[in-house]
Amino acid sequence: MKKSLLLIVACIFAIACGNSETSKAESTQTEAITNEKEAAPEVIESASSPCGFVTEEKIKEILGIPADDLAEIKDVVRTYPTCFYKWKTTAFTTKKTVAGQEISLNYPAEASIVLVENANEKMFGISTKVYKDGVTVDGIGDMATWGSRMSQLTFLAKGTMIHLHVRISDDAAANKVKAVALAALIIEKL
């Protein structure tokens, strides 16, 4: 009898603890959704939205993405206005070794633009400290740094800092070339 009662109590505690973790996870997910607000249509059209810098067609042209490939575009405001692009059918494959086995992983082509207005050299320095493999890129704005690991180009031009993530290939050098070309076009629009 005591064993049955103890087993029932243990089951109740296990169920109660499981529900507590579920509600914590749901709460965290709700907070993340709340913090990532999609911009209203009028913001997308404004100068403060990075989605307005370059048309999707021009981005596809620069990145070498087929014109008929549909993009999922998200214009959100996190810490700074951000525009995310993810293409539905354009993907690339990368190989990883896991537990001694080589596996192939497919990733969709993607790009993002983060807009930081009223930026200066100090802010640029702080932002690019996270690049463990950062390399200075000449000829892009006032200053620019490329990080292969993050597949991201951060540049400062006309008092604006842009974080430009481009990952359309497993080849970091190819991603860098595309990011530099896209950055030149964005600088024209600043």
Order of adjacent strands in the largest pleated sheet: 1-2-3-4-8-7-6-5
Largest sheet: 8 strands, antiparallel
Secondary structure tally: strands: 8
Category by helix and strand content: alpha+beta
Overall mean pLDDT: 83
Protein model, in words:
- With 190 residues, this protein is of the alpha+beta class.
- Helices cover 38% and strands 34% of the residues.
- It contains 5 helices and 8 strands; from the N terminus they run H-E-H-H-E-E-E-H-E-E-E-E-H.
- It has helices at 2-35, 41-45, 56-63, 121-128, 172-189; strands at residues 37-38, 71-77, 81-98, 101-116, 135-136, 143-147, 152-157, 160-167.
- The chain has an 8-stranded antiparallel β-sheet, sandwiched between helices.
- Strand 6 and strand 7 (152-157) form a beta hairpin.
- The protein is globular and about 55 Å long.
- The chain starts with a helix and ends with a helix.
Helix and strand arrangement:
Elements: H1 2-35, E1 37-38, H2 41-45, H3 56-63, E2 71-77, E3 81-98, E4 101-116, H4 121-128, E5 135-136, E6 143-147, E7 152-157, E8 160-167, H5 172-189
Antiparallel strand pairs: 1-2, 2-3, 3-4, 4-8, 5-6, 6-7, 7-8
List the main descriptive attributes of the protein structure presented here.
190 residues, alpha+beta, 8-stranded antiparallel sheet
